Amino acid sequence: MPPRPEASETPGSPFPSLPLSDGRTIPQLGLGIYKTPEEAVPALARRAVEIGYRHFDTASMYENEAGLGEGLRTCGLPREELFVTTKVWNTDHGYEETLAACARSLERLRTEYVDLYLIHWPAPGRGRYRETWRALEKLRDDGLVRSIGVSNFHAHHLAELRKSSERMPVVNQVECHPRLPQRDLIRFHDEHGIRTEAWAPLARGRLLQDESLGELARSLGRTPAQVVLRWHLQRGVVVIPKTVNPERLVENARILDFELADTEMAALARLETGERTGDDPDDRD
Questions:
Q1: 141 falls within a domain
Q2: Where is the site Lowers pKa of active site Tyr (predicted)?
Q3: Would the pLDDT of 4 be above 80?
Q4: C-beta separation of 154 from 282 below 8 A
Q5: In 30, 123, 162, 247, which residue has its Cα 20 to 30 A from 41's Cα atom?
């Protein structure tokens, strides 16, 4: 397990922020809005802000950027206190195509910049993620995005980027949960200053019925989801659980007032199977 990173406070929020290699920070707990209907997003985002969330993760492919933009414009907080991530989709790979895709995302979000812009998948069969990365570097230099990173990249995809760029991505957002803990990839990230961010942190709910996890959660007086999310935090991983349930939105946030012992972390490590809930990045174009 990587060493626990130094964390800082997130203004107006109980959740810690973690440093990025470009000198910025990222709130460690965020809200993912994958598959959330656009009409439900504004109210969900406003409620999340009330609870203390400041980090929101969307993508052009999710078709709900406009809803997130509306929710955050009407949440009562200034833009600079919010952290917004969006992503460029596979069919928009390429230099000019990515610049245009980012412009469309900014228009839908109705914001002058996004805090983190990611290449959604490497789409290796298209062979254009290096061009796409050059576009992200220009967007950063032009101030349209604050930080740039990738999503669903294997170490060998990252190594290819390193051949043509002086800077590595500050974030790689990947499927990560106790069944797929990504130990080797996280080790690579740590060696190159890349922050690991977990999507499907609860294995899309498949973990929550595990009997041994349930026993551990009961012994701690917590829910299985809270135990797994706490496991992510203690590994130094940024985590973006998704939910449209207001009660679970609160439940997922209540993970700061307890800590897992080494034996409890080891118990979660024994859940590893290598099982993915999504595609292997080498197979997704």
A1: yes
A2: 87
A3: no
A4: yes
A5: 123
